UniProtKB/TrEMBL annotation, chain A:
Domain of life (superkingdom): Bacteria
Residue intervals of the ChsH2 C-terminal OB-fold domain: 32-89
Protein name (record): Nucleic acid-binding protein
InterPro entries per UniProt: ChsH2_C, NA-bd_OB-fold, Thioester_dehydratase-like
UniProtKB/TrEMBL annotation, chain B:
Organism: Psychrobacillus lasiicapitis
GO biological process: lipid transport
GO molecular-function terms, A-Z: acyltransferase activity, transferring groups other than amino-acyl groups; lipid binding
Record protein name field: propanoyl-CoA C-acyltransferase
Gene3D superfamilies: 3.40.47.10
């Protein structure tokens, strides 16, 4: 999994930014980290927009990556609780699909 | 101190008006505001609106107002900032006066939503998220963001779904006394707790409804009894995964901080508040971010009834977005309608002799926030 690390402070994001939004001066540099992480929070979406209606209810989680400061928003293939260990299973249509370990 | 004053306010009934057009609602609110202000000469018009283009096929709202009301060939604009469109329209009007370009500005907000299907409206509302992101592709929705936030809030504090229900019930009880509110049917904690799940843990009563409605204000550098003591705006992360602290919405905190600083007052000085409760959880976070209660302790204040109209920090005496209704572009303007009514002493759920009032209007999942502090002078 790719994350972007500021070269002048501890800011990290799953997506690149032109200038670091935290220190307002650093540039972000690409960093490869393991996809494993811990569920920081989650929701089960029962009322879905039309493009996801066929898979509702589904679970979206905010995952704290184990070896990075950054968090990533993912879809999980089963219900989860805060603290559950999860890892990347697949990338599909631009979405990170995770599963419980 | 802006030295800009509110001279007139207008607002339509909020609710379902299949037989009324967007133009009809918009002009109705504007005419009320102009009459309330004594029909002054207007130098510019700013209209807050979010989805007139996408679900109603109607733009050029500013020019329509000027033309239909016979205001002359004055400059006008439609302002879009998702659910903060109304608050930003007001701020643009204030800045126009502060620049010296205008003396008097008509600010309005309108939305027409109930003619469209829920699926079409949901799709249109999703325009207020960053759609070119892995987060959107994962299926995160607008309410979903606040569901994720709520589950973490419960995890880190002693709060539970019951506290969100108490907050939603409080706003419903306020709406019962507001003749312009969308929902005036009494409910119970049990009904709120047992309602259909939208996005865990948020149920139907935790989410603001689709609403038709409009509101308008006349503001001017000429003096009146209602001074806009400060106007502030901030932006924040447009994606959940970019939040440094999930239980913080920096745009709310920063716009509040700037508004207090410009006004030379603090949260303890504010007598009555309108907050952007697009979801029950949003009001919970906002009462903390605006400094009314300690971080992660807002739920205690709700439990103690401190944010009821009878409490020491009355929040959403109008019924809020949850029960007064949320015609998106009109919301930020309708908040000011309620606060001016409070300062004039003739509001629904009138609080005792308020002097300072604060309105906070949020756009997106924390993308935009405006704060205005009003003062009775
Ligand atoms: Zn940095």
């Amino acid at each position: 999994m790719k994350v972007f690390q500021c070269n002048s402070c501890d800011y990290q994001s799953i997506s690149n930014k032109y200038v670091c939004p935290k220190c307002l001066k650093g540039k972000l540099e690409e960093l490869e980290v393991p996809s494993t992480g811990t569920v920081y929070s989650f929701t089960d979406i029962h009322v879905a927009p039309s493009e996801f209606a066929d898979i509702a209810p589904y679970t979206v989680a905010l995952v704290q990556l184990d070896e990075a400061k950054g968090k990533v928003t993912v879809r999980v293939n089963e219900p989860v609780q805060i603290g559950d260990k999860v890892e990347l299973e697949n990338v599909e249509k631009g979405a990170y699909l995770y599963k419980k370990i | 101190m802006t030295n800009v004053y509110v001279h007139g306010i207008g607002m339509t009934q909020f609710g379902t008006f299949i037989d009324r057009t967007m133009k009809d609602l918009l002009l109705d609110a504007c005419i009320q505001a102009l009459e309330d202000a004594g029909n002054p000469k207007v130098d510019a018009v700013f209209v807050g609106n979010f989805m007139g283009g996408s679900i109603y096929n109607q733009e050029i709202l500013g020019a329509i107002v000027a033309n239909e009301l016979g205001l002359g060939f004055i400059p006008t604009a439609k302002v879009e900032g998702a659910c903060a469109s109304g608050g930003i329209a007001l701020r643009q009007g204030i800045l126009g006066i502060l620049s010296g370009e205008y003396n008097t500005v008509l600010v309005a907000g309108v939305e027409k939503m109930k003619h469209a299907s829920t699926a079409d409206v949901t799709q249109a509302i999703n325009a207020a998220m960053d759609n070119d992101s892995n987060e959107k592709h994962a299926g995160l929705t607008f309410p979903g963001f606040f569901g994720v936030l709520a589950n973490r809030y419960f995890y880190e504090t002693g709060a539970s779904k019951k506290h969100l229900a108490m907050l939603a019930l409080k706003n419903r009880e306020h709406a019962l006394n507001n003749p312009l509110a969308q929902f005036r049917k009494p409910t119970t904690l049990e009904e709120i707790m047992d309602a259909r799940m939208i996005t865990n843990p948020l149920g139907l009563f935790d989410c603001s409804p689709m609403t038709d409605g409009a509101a308008a204000l006349v503001i001017s550098k000429e003096k009146s009894a209602i001074h806009i003591r400060s106007s502030a705006q901030a932006s924040g992360p447009t994606q959940m995964q970019d939040a440094d602290d999930l239980l913080s919405i920096p745009a709310i905190r920063e716009s509040g901080r700037l508004a207090y600083e410009k006004a030379g007052v603090g949260p303890e000085d504010i007598d009555v508040v309108e907050i952007h409760d697009c979801f029950s959880m949003t009001e919970m976070i906002a009462i903390e971010e605006l400094g009314f209660f300690n971080k992660r302790e807002g739920w205690k204040a709700v439990e103690e009834g401190r944010t009821k109209s009878t409490g020491d920090k009355p929040v959403n005496t109008s019924g809020g977005l949850l029960s007064r209704g949320h015609p998106i572009g009109a919301t930020g303007v309708a908040q000011i309608y309620q606060l001016v009514s409070q300062l004039r002493g003739n509001a629904a759920n009138q609080v005792d002799n308020p002097r300072l009032a604060l309105a906070q209007n949020l756009g997106g999942t924390g993308s935009y926030s405006t704060v205005h502090i009003l003062e009775r002078v």
